[in-house]
Write a structure and sequence with these properties.
About 25% of the residues lie in helices and about 20% in strands. With about 260 residues, the chain is an alpha/beta fold. It has a single domain, classed as Metallo-beta-lactamase, Chain A. The strands form 2 sheets. A 6-stranded mixed sheet has the order 6-7-8-9-10-11, with helices on one face. A hairpin with a 4-residue loop joins strand 9 (about 180-185) and strand 10.
Length: about 260
């Protein structure tokens, strides 16, 4: 994604220079199948970008390349996309759920408040959800906000029937039922925080964020206070458990290294 904003969005150059944002998806080998965390934009989005909506295309300026969709990247790894049996979503925004239709056999895990908000969005949130992306009728697995504790975060749901620990952690604020997805790699936890923050320095101590990204987060947030509170908790997690947990977010290209 190549929005204009340069340094204001964490890139370089003036306000009309292109910055680079990405949509990180994680592929997890889980027993005899695969699990996918977020889907990014899908092949149907690439084939018909207009369905993403004019505001999204004008502001975010996605480069719709079929080769960069999750399903094509899985194929490039010589794996079978039909082996993706579980998808865990941080949330249902257009740039996170667009690839659902590429994995119609997968069970799609999402917190119940997020799915409810997407099905009947409030007026100010109608543009964030593109319902055509799940017109195929996904196999929804709705999870309530209850469960165990994980590094001080309550209401964690572990995905069932996997031989890898994958936990859904409520991080509301950016959207109604936003989640972080934590994966036990065997050498610690990798915590995909979705859009709970946009820039790696936001979970540093002291925190910082390019002003354009800070403004964007405030504008699109469902609940700004919840978002700020969760960012503070993530900073504490990053500081106190740096040996046990690695945090990443969805759109910061620094994590590509």
């Amino acid at each position: 994604m190549c929005p204009r904003g340069g340094q204001q969005l964490g890139g370089s150059g003036g306000p009309f220079a292109e910055a680079t944002l990405v949509s990180h998806c994680l592929l997890v080998e889980a027993g005899d199948g695969l699990a996918l965390i977020d889907t990014g934009l899908g092949t149907a989005d690439v084939a018909a970008p207009k369905r993403l909506g004019q505001p999204f295309r004008a502001l975010i300026r996605p480069r719709c390349r079929d080769s960069e969709t999750a399903v094509r990247q899985i194929e490039q790894m010589k794996l079978d996309p039909q082996d993706v049996r579980h998808i865990a979503l941080t949330h249902l925004d257009v740039d996170h759920a667009g690839g659902l239709g590429d994995f119609p056999r997968a069970q799609v895990h999402v917190f119940a408040p997020e799915l409810a908000a997407a099905r009947k969005p409030a007026l100010r949130e109608r543009r964030r959800y593109v319902t055509v992306q799940w017109d195929h009728g996904p196999k929804w697995a709705e999870h309530e906000l209850e469960g165990d504790s994980w590094f001080g975060f309550d209401s964690v749901r572990l995905l069932p029937d996997l031989d890898v620990e994958v936990a859904m952690v409520p991080l509301p604020g950016h959207s109604t039922g936003h989640a972080g997805i934590a994966v036990n790699t065997g050498q610690g936890w990798l915590f995909h925080c979705g859009d709970a923050y946009f820039h790696h320095e936001e979970v540093a101590t002291p925190p910082s964020c390019p002003p354009g990204l800070r403004l964007f987060q405030n504008v699109v947030a469902h609940d700004r206070e919840q978002r700020r509170n969760n960012q503070e908790r993530l900073r504490e997690l990053a500081l106190e458990h740096r040996e046990d947990v690695q945090l990443i977010c969805s759109h910061d290209p620094v994590y590509m290294s």
